[in-house]
Amino acid sequence: MKKMRVTVNGVCYDVEVEMIEDDEQPGTSYGYAATSLQAQPAAPPPPRPMPPPTAPHPVAAGPGGVVDSPIAGIVVEVKVETGSTVTKNQPLLIIEAMKMNTNVSSPTEGRIAQVLVKAGDHVLQGQPLVKFE
After folding, report:
1. CA-CA distances (angstroms) from residue 133 to 3, 65, 100?
2. DSSP codes joined into one string, 54-95
3. What is the dihedral sign for C-alpha 126, 127, 130, 133?
4. Among candidate residues 132, 80, 133, 83, the one with its CA nearest the CA of residue 104
5. What is the 8-class DSSP label of residue 132?
6. pLDDT per residue as tens digits for the range 92-115
7. Fewer beta carbons under 10 A from the terminal one: N or C of the chain?
8. pLDDT grade, residue 46 (50/70/90)?
């Protein structure tokens, strides 16, 4: 008897086989009779590599820019409103992700044309949050 492992349709089986012909003679074919089957869970596929993180798309210097969300999460607090004048690096809002707060700051000086989110909103990475005039 020989023990072999066979995979059929993604299910792995450990089997015992009985040799019908001697395997010492070259050039002969062999037939096997299975004597027992035991299903084994299939081995998990190898893990996929993580995609590289994407850089946030901050507002471009100049009019008409947009600040996008650097992460996915929940808006905890909006610190500006439409018509506000902001300075570079001034906090615009706070996003919570995985129990950590992330400040989203203004990348430039300017005037807020529109705030696109409110506290409690779920946002995705890259989603527009604030528009500048």
Report:
1. 74, 7, 30
2. PPP-PPPSSTT-EEEPSS-EEEEEE---TT-EE-TT-EEEEE
3. positive
4. 80
5. E
6. 999 999 999 999 999 989 999 999
7. N
8. confident
